[in-house]
Design brief:
By secondary structure, the protein is mainly alpha-helical. It contains five helices and three strands; from the N terminus they run H-H-E-E-E-H-H-H.
Length: 130
């Protein structure tokens, strides 16, 4: 995705007024929305993985992001169901929050809203600033 010559065309088509339907974007696309569209920043929110949300898999493991299930072993939820310790102290969850707070994208003007883009898949960060 990142280096495809079709990235700009995709965002132009998906955000144009030509079609009769609206296209919604997952927060994974936030870097492209900032860099390649004139979308209103008030309508865009960065990834909430580990900041406001947690994914619980069918085998009762916790992940900051559902896309991480195949990439990480996950944190086992205790039998008492209390996952506050996972939320506050898991290396995985704190790692996501550290990534979002880092200076990975340097002085990018969209960093406050984009939060450095996707922490899992660098190839979908399509802003062109990294």
């Amino acid at each position: 995705l990142r280096n495809s010559p079709l990235v700009q065309e995709f965002f132009a088509l998906a955000t144009s007024n030509v079609s009769k339907f609206k296209v919604g974007f997952d927060s994974c696309c936030v870097s492209g929305l900032f860099a390649r569209t004139d979308a209103n920043v008030k309508t865009i929110e960065a990834c909430d993985a580990g900041r406001f949300s947690m994914f619980i898999s069918e085998d009762m493991k916790a992940y900051p992001c559902s896309f991480q299930k195949e990439l990480h072993e996950g944190d086992v939820i205790p039998e008492n169901g209390n996952f506050l310790d996972i939320w506050q102290n898991s290396d995985n969850f704190t790692g996501f929050r550290d990534y979002f707070a880092s200076n990975r994208c340097g002085g990018c003007s969209s960093k406050k809203i984009c939060l450095n883009g996707c922490p899992l898949f660098d190839e979908i960060v399509v802003c062109g600033n990294r």
